[in-house]
Amino acid sequence: MTTRIVVIDDEAEVCDLIGRVLIRAGHEVLVAHTGEAGLALLAEHEVHCLVVDKLLPQMGGLEVVAAVRRRWPSVAIVLVTAHPEPFNLGAERPEVVLAKPFKNLAAVEDAVHEALEAHASNSNKGPLRNLKERVAAVVAEMTPGRRKRE
């Protein structure tokens, strides 16, 4: 099965570069230059991964990430930014944050691969199971007898 990826960046050259790298890696790539156009592509096609620039005109990349998380939770996300300063990602966080300029072109392919793997891993656990694991760990840590046995 071919992985379909939507790339959203307002710079045509960046879209072209990322697109060529991902097509060469065997992915199908759809390109948009605005957040709104990218969301339209997601509505029209079954998409596995989104690569979105943080700074976009009108609807910013973080807004796109939040919209995708709400509407298409099965899509893995790579957020691309030239400004890697700390910013609040909240619950809608991407699987991977990729800094621009890229160290090398393989970094783009690696980021997408990492996002897809991380998303698949989290999806397989499911939110309820993940919550149960976290609660069990906290309860175990709070249990007085646990410290004596260790």
Structure description:
The C terminus is likely disordered. This protein has a five-stranded parallel sheet, with helices on both faces. It is globular, with a radius of gyration of 18 Å. It has one domain: Rossmann fold (3-Layer(aba) Sandwich), CATH 3.40.50. Helix 2 packs parallel to helix 3. Helix 1 links the parallel strand 1 and strand 2. By secondary structure, it is α/β, with parallel strands linked by helices. The longest helix is centred in the last third of the chain and has 38 residues.
How would you concisely characterize the structure shown here?
The chain has a single domain, classed as Rossmann fold. 52% of the residues lie in helices and 17% in strands.
Q: Specify the CATH homologous superfamily.
A: Response regulator
**3D shape:** globular
Whole-Å distance between the termini?
Answer: 48 Å
Order of helices and strands: EHEHEHEEHH
Roughly how many Å is the radius of gyration? 18 Å
Write the layout of secondary structure elements.
Elements (H helix, E strand, L loop, with lengths): L3 E5 L3 H13 L3 E5 L2 H10 L4 E5 L7 H11 L4 E6 L14 E4 L5 H38 L1 H6 L1
Parallel strand pairs: 1-2, 1-3, 3-4, 4-5
Q: Tags for this entry?
A:
5-stranded parallel beta sheet; Rossmann fold; disordered C terminus; 52% helix; 150 residues; alpha/beta; globular; 5 strands; 5 helices
